[in-house]
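SEQUENCE-TO-STRUCTURE ENTRY
===========================

Backbone structure tokens: a row of integers, each naming the local backbone shape at its residue.

Task: work out the structure tokens from the sequence, keeping to the layout shown below.
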Amino acid sequence: MEMELTKDNCHKFDDLSIFPHDQLTKFFMSIPKIQALGFLRAFEQDFLLRYLEVCPDDLSEDWQGSLKYKTHRVGELMQPAPLILNENQTIGDAINGVRKVSRCSC
């Protein structure tokens, strides 16, 4: 019987790397980012690099950016701004800028 990893049972496992990558991703997306980063930091470096290669690109980029910061620092929770508008832009230029931003798949 396949065991499912959830936020209610994750504390029972010493090594989350035993779970399939898709199940890890689903689990990490169900918990606060700061907790997910703690689990990611606990992985052996080789496993972490392999996992980040196969998880969705947007998550991989976000987590890699966050993991560059020391724990308990604001930087690990920050996300890049999807769009920056200049107050001197015309409304038309701002609208065109917003239209060019790809939609989030969150």
In short: The two ends are 31 Å apart (CA to CA). The chain has a mean pLDDT of 86. Helices lie at 21-30, 33-42, 45-54, 57-67, 91-100.
